[in-house]
Design brief:
This protein is of the alpha/beta class. The chain has one domain: UDP-N-acetylmuramoyl-L-alanine:D-glutamate ligase, CATH 3.40.1190.20. Helices cover 39% and strands 21% of the residues. The chain contains nine helices and nine strands. A six-stranded mixed sheet has the order 3-2-1-4-5-6. A three-stranded antiparallel sheet has the order 7-8-9. β8 and β9 form a beta hairpin. α1 crosses α7, α2 packs parallel to α3 and α7 crosses α8. It is globular. The model has no long low-confidence stretch (mean pLDDT 93).
Amino acid sequence: MTPIALTIAGSDSSGGAGIQADLKTFAALGVYGASVVTALTAQNTRGVAAVHDVPADFVARQIDAVFADLDVRTVKIGMLSQAATVDAVAEALDRHAAQNVVVDPVMVATSGGRLIADGAVEHLRTRLMPRARLVTPNLPEAAALLGASAARDENEMAAQARALLQFGAHAVLIKGGHGNTSESVDLLADADGVTRFAARRIVTQNTHGTGCTLSSAVAAGFAKGLDLKVAVQQAKDYVTDAIAGADTLDVGHGHGPLNHFVRQWSSS
């Protein structure tokens, strides 16, 4: 049976992040992607100019339509900028008994533009995180969810990952892409403890959509039946390759996108 993943997220008009990055990632990893648009953004590689939220009831209608017809094996959730949208998504997940939910708590774009209302953060913590198989914050997002300062080293990352588990998620993956060491280290906390995933840090400004891509790559692994740690490792490897190939693209004048199809294009 064809593995199907659903992304519930905002649209990036420049194609590098959000829904567009998720669908590219699903396709590159051999998974059929369906999508529910939660917001339209006017953005490019230089920044976010405007955000137009889709009404929460219409977000719910989109989710219902997908689940009424498609055998969705995993759900990746990205940008939910309003509390009402978070609530509508949480209710829809329950209504359809959604499995393998990956929550990427998108708060700020790579360019620095804020993508979530203050009131939505608490709903994210209390309504969505308890329904998640995996939550994937970066260092600033983990700090915001905890009301703390950003972790400065791996010990603090591990402590914050364990603290985030208390909100009810099955597992938490704190992404270390914002660090400044020679390795890009992500830490996975679950009932078994903390597992370290490391890759060489690649120096490039073309990192637009990295977080979206990693979370959707894990979701793709879930859709194909991979267990948690294998899905995270394969996602880490894929994102590392996509960042390494980013400079082969010439897109925009700011933080350009990853090369989501670097494996396919390099072999053609």
